[in-house]
TrEMBL record:
The keyword DNA-binding does not apply. Its cofactor is Cu cation; Zn(2+); Mn(2+). This is Amine oxidase. PANTHER family: COPPER AMINE OXIDASE, COPPER AMINE OXIDASE 1-RELATED. Transmembrane segments: none annotated. GO terms for biological process: amine metabolic process. Its EC number is 1.4.3.-. Topaquinone (TPQ) is generated by copper-dependent autoxidation of a specific tyrosyl residue. The active site is at D318, Y402. Residues 26-107 form the Copper amine oxidase N2-terminal domain. Residues 656-675 are annotated as: Disordered. It comes from Cladosporium halotolerans. Contains 1 topaquinone per subunit. It is an enzyme of class 1 (oxidoreductase).
Length: 675
């Protein structure tokens, strides 16, 4: 960054500190490029030879934010949470007060590794192509040294490798080949796996399997329009659909606070979690009711199921090791949302400390959503039909071969939905002629082995259901214990919802079964009709158990994935359920959730300020339909108001059609409206 620009910035900032600011900024707004630059310069003053792995907003403590709201004009400090590193695997956890331009905390944690930046990933391919041992291995597979430009690699986190624990920051390079530059490389996996040292930019080792697998001879299979036009032709029977909003959108953005259909919340974004929704409230007929204080995807892990060395290392923590924000797509070339779209940008730091911005990182738009409610009186065909609209806050990130499309969806009936769509391309491995991919993979195309794997996401929910004192209940649909023919259950049909409150952190663990949901409730407030505590129900149906066994590397490292639900007492610093520094951690002892729970087992989580951690996802047994590119596979988690409202909260949405029995009888015109 040019010095003039920095000075400019400092000038502007001084203006703001002086109270001259016209644009009010929310304390949860992400750091601007200017603020990132200040944090970087403050760190560099103390230590000039560092690289920056992350510079992000340290959100104000929950208690401080509440004071800020109550006191109206209190100035909250802007804090930058910096992860920097330098040669010899030194890592610096630094807190910078942006306004004071001062280091508030400087820590040098040992035996941990910082996240892998996009720049760390981008350089690997070049180095792999030049490495003599890689060239030699390519030669063994029949790729001459003159063809090294046809060799590609997906650099991956190494996970953890017990052979290399001298403090070097490492990646593994999953190797591929492209006969032509436009050919999909995943059809031509190479069977060896170089290990790359980030600091020295060298290949330090190559894992070569005992059984060699030759380069695939199958013809290319591609998905780009040009190839499809040539090979199968594009469908020509689709007529245009136009979605227009001639009067604009129905939401209002004030800075990053959005107001739409009774909903109001703040849209944050960081390098790691991507989108963060905070202070989510719902206006219940004039009564603004808090629902969630903060919700985000906080971690994920993708364990692969092939037991052969070194495939056990494939279990990327895409958030903790790379960052869902860092990998986010600029949606400039279109996010394929239709209608009137609003975008928000996201700013990050480069390794050298320069700030940069991804344009259009977040997409905000509305969609028609079919029927909101409908009923026809079968006697006279008097009828009411109301169409639904939804608000979608989305981002798409590319983690190597995969795309993760993240949609935070607000519905008019008070439901919050997180939809995740998986698309992109399977991570593949070579298959020798005659070799079977089973039982740990599927041959999705001749010579292409797609290993089985899971995608497990950890949703972090900081609820504020009508206040911060909340309780989680396991809710099980159960048949009555009373036997058929007994007095209570003579006909044997009795069933009920059995609600069990989770009481302590040690006992705040719950597994999934198809009869189970979880109520996040405020027991201090009862619904006027049902007498039940006001609550939001966590409804999640894609909850596979963690496949790696207890005591395995993945089980140790991904403690959050052992159970569907964990509940902890709120602590500002407990943000990342697999720990703050995830790369190359052995998981012994486990970081994050298991550690917090072990340290604070007896802490009450009933009627307390709590955080709910929910792990959901899919077990993916690939199939040929997923190749050469996967049709997007959706999964959803719902947060549904239950006993929260006194009645259907969206009765006031204008119906598209509504008539009454007397109207039908007297021939009055039906109401026709809606948007
Ligand atoms: C949270 O939202 C409420 C209602 O919209 C608002 O009054 C309050 O100031 C917000 N708090 C923060 C920290 O933004
Ligand atoms: Cu998958």
């Amino acid at each position: 960054m040019a010095l003039e620009r920095l000075q400019d910035t400092l000038g502007q900032l001084a203006g703001k500190v002086g109270g001259l600011t016209t644009q009010t900024r929310h304390p949860l707004d992400p750091l601007t490029e200017d603020e990132i630059a200040i944090a970087v310069s403050v760190v560099k003053e103390r230590k000039s030879d560092v690289i920056f792995n992350a510079v992000t907003l340290l959100e104000p403590k929950k208690a401080d934010l509440r004071t800020w709201v109550e006191s109206g004009d209190a100035e909250l400090p802007r804090m930058a949470d910096v992860i920097a590193s330098s040669k010899g695997n030194k890592i610096y956890d630094v807190l910078v007060d942006i306004k004071a331009k001062a280091v508030v905390r400087w820590e040098e944690p040992k035996d941990v590794y910082p996240g892998i930046t996009m720049e760390d990933l981008m350089v690997v391919e070049e180095i792999v192509r030049k490495d003599p041992k890689v060239i030699e291995q390519c030669g063994i597979l029949g790729i001459p040294p003159t063809d090294m430009h046809k060799v590609y690699c997906d650099p991956w986190t190494i996970g953890y490798d017990e052979r290399f624990t001298d403090g070097s920051r490492l990646q593994q390079a999953l190797m591929y080949y492209r006969p032509n530059v436009d050919d999909l490389q995943y059809t031509y996996p190479l069977d060896f796996c170089p290990i790359y040292n980030i600091e020295t930019q060298e290949i330090i080792h190559i894992d070569v399997p005992e059984k060699r697998r030759p380069l695939n001879k199958a013809p290319p299979t591609n998905y780009d329009a040009e190839s499809i036009q040539k090979e199968i032709g594009l469908r020509d029977d689709l007529k245009p659909i136009h979605i227009t909003q001639p009067e604009g959108v129905s939401f209002k953005l004030d800075g990053r606070t959005i107001d739409w259909q009774k909903w109001n919340f703040h849209i944050g974004f960081n390098y790691r979690e991507g989108i963060v929704l905070s202070n989510v409230t719902f206006n219940d007929r004039g009564n603004v009711r808090p629902v969630f204080w903060r919700i985000s995807l906080a971690e994920m892990v993708v364990p692969y199921g092939n037991p052969d060395h070194p495939h056990h290392r494939k279990h990327a923590f895409d958030l903790g090791e790379y960052g869902a924000g860092y990998m986010t797509n600029p949606l400039a070339m279109g996010c394929d949302c239709k209608g009137a779209i609003h975008y928000l940008d996201a700013s990050f730091v480069r390794k050298n400390g320069e700030p940069y911005t991804i344009k259009n990182a977040i997409c905000i738009h509305e969609e028609d959503d079919g029927i909101l409610f409908k009923h026809t009186d079968f006697r006279d065909e008097s009828s009411t039909t109301t169409r639904a609209r939804k608000l979608i806050i989305s981002q798409i990130f590319t983690a190597g071969n995969y795309e993760y499309c993240i949609y935070w969806i607000m519905h008019q009936d008070g439901v919050i939905q997180l939809e995740v769509k998986l698309t992109g391309i399977l991570s593949t491995y070579a298959l020798a002629p005659g070799e079977s991919a089973a039982p740990y993979g599927t041959e999705v195309y001749p010579g292409v082995n797609a290993h089985h794997h899971q995608h497990l996401f950890c949703l972090r929910l900081d609820p504020s259901i009508d206040g911060h004192a909340n309780t989680v209940f396991e809710v099980d649909a159960v048949a009555s214990d009373a036997p058929v023919g007994s007095r209570e259950n003579r006909y044997g049909n009795a069933f009920m919802a059995r609600k069990t409150p989770l009481q302590t952190m040690a006992a705040g663990i719950s597994d999934y079964n198809p009869s189970r949901t979880w109520d996040i409730a405020n027991t201090n407030k009862l619904n006027p009709h049902s007498g039940n505590p006001v609550s939001y129900k966590l409804v999640s149906r894609e909850v596979p158990g963690l496949m790696p066994k207890e005591g395995s590397l993945v089980w140790n490292r991904a403690g959050f994935a052992r159970h569907a639900v964990h509940v902890t007492r709120h602590a500002d610093e407990q943000q990342f359920p697999a720990g703050r520094h995830v790369p190359q951690h052995s998981g012994e002892p486990s970081q994050g959730l298991p550690a917090w729970i072990a340290a604070n087992g007896p802490a009450s989580i009933a009627n307390e300020d709590i955080v709910v951690w929910h792990t959901f996802g899919v077990t993916h047994f690939p199939s040929p339909e997923d190749y050469p590119i996967m049709p997007a596979e959706p999964m959803s988690v719902l947060l549904r108001p239950r006993n929260f409202f006194a009645q259907n909260p969206c009765l006031d949405v204008p119906p598209s059609y509504s008539s009454t029995p007397s109207g039908v009888r007297e021939g009055r015109r039906a109401f026709r409206g809606g948007a």
